[in-house]
Write a structure and sequence with these properties.
Belongs to the TRAFAC class TrmE-Era-EngA-EngB-Septin-like GTPase superfamily. EngB GTPase family. It holds the Pfam family MMR_HSR1. Its cofactor is Mg(2+). By secondary structure, this protein is of the alpha/beta class. It has 2 domains: 1-35; 41-234, 3-Layer(aba) Sandwich (Rossmann fold), CATH 3.40.50. It has helices at residues 9-18, 20-32, 74-81, 125-141, 160-172, 188-201, 222-234, and strands at residues 45-50, 62-68, 100-104, 110-114, 145-153, 176-181, 208-213. A hairpin with a 5-residue loop joins strand 3 (100-104) and strand 4 (110-114). It is globular and about 45 Å long. Bound molecules: guanosine-5'-triphosphate (GTP) and magnesium ion. The site of magnesium ion has 6 residues, from helix 3. Guanosine-5'-triphosphate (GTP) binds at residues 68, 70-76, 90-92, 94-97, 117, 181-182, 184-185, 215-217.
């Protein structure tokens, strides 16, 4: 007789008694255990404003920064994504966001970052140089930066600054998502054509993971961009 015979009534009885409860226990633990909670953008809170890299929160965990030309719609995009119209200050006046603003999320050490816009004509040359330097320090040295969201007005895409940011991401192998925003300002056909133009211009850019038609007003592209941000912040 083999040393273990599964047909043996005693073995069957033992399995009947012992096999099920542990399996259920494992399933329960998968549901209720320490599995990290999904990111909830609605829980975003203002954390801190930083004028320079040394004022930023500790460089741990993961964060995604929103960059783009002044007035492109970065702060509005953040407010749309977090479903909180008052989170990041928006303005008709370009140059509203002058500091690096950090927003914390429900998951510890995950952040969204609103960067100062580039190309605001009314500030002095010295101030511009200053910003550019702080921005470049942030982009170069920030280790928790998991991806960059480049916000471009769909009617005026790929400015020199946008192209510089794309090249910078490519050079540093940083995942890039482009939100072509204010799509509500164009007819759908025009917006589609604009998207095709952007895609064509960036067809060789490896770091460009997502190009999304977006509107903070009509919420076009909202769920798609939230999914990308969640994946980046969770390290998927
Ligand atoms: N119609 C429309 N207007 C938008 C959209 N997104 C932003 N705006 C408007 O564009 C203007 C600038 O938006 P902001 O979000 O403040 O732009 P920003 O890129 O943060 O600007 P800075 O902080 O100056 O760099 C505001 O008047 C917004 O209401 C959009 O999707 N559709
Ligand atoms: Mg802003």
């Amino acid at each position: 007789m083999p040393w273990l015979c599964l047909d043996e009534p005693a073995v069957k009885a033992a399995f009947a008694k012992t096999a099920e409860p542990p399996m259920l226990a494992i399933q329960d633990s998968l549901v209720t255990s320490d599995a990290p909670k999904p990111i909830s953008f609605n829980s975003a809170r203002f954390q801190i404003s930083a004028a320079k890299l040394s004022d930023c929160p500790p460089d741990t965990g993961r964060e995604v920064a929103f960059a783009g030309r002044s007035n492109a719609g970065k702060s509005s995009a953040i407010n749309c994504i977090t479903a909180n119209g008052k989170l990041a200050r928006t303005s008709k006046t370009p140059g509203r966001t002058r500091l690096i603003n950090f927003f914390s999320l429900n998951r510890e050490d995950c952040r969204l970052v609103d960067l100062p816009g580039y190309g605001y004509a009314k500030v002095s040359r010295d101030m511009k140089d200053d910003w550019q330097q702080h921005l470049s320090h942030y982009l170069t040295d920030r280790r928790s930066l998991a991806g960059l969201t480049l916000v471009m007005d769909i009617r005026h895409p790929l400015t020199d600054f946008d192209q510089m940011m794309v090249e910078w991401c490519e050079h540093n192998k940083l995942p890039l998502m482009i939100l072509a925003t204010k799509a509500d300002k164009l007819k759908f056909g025009q917006a589609k054509t604009a998207m095709l133009g952007i895609r064509k211009a960036l067809k060789d850019v490896q770091c460009l993971e997502h190009l999304i038609m977006f509107s903070a007003t009509s919420k076009t592209g909202l769920e798609e961009s939230r999914k990308v941000l969640s994946d980046w912040l969770e390290g998927v």
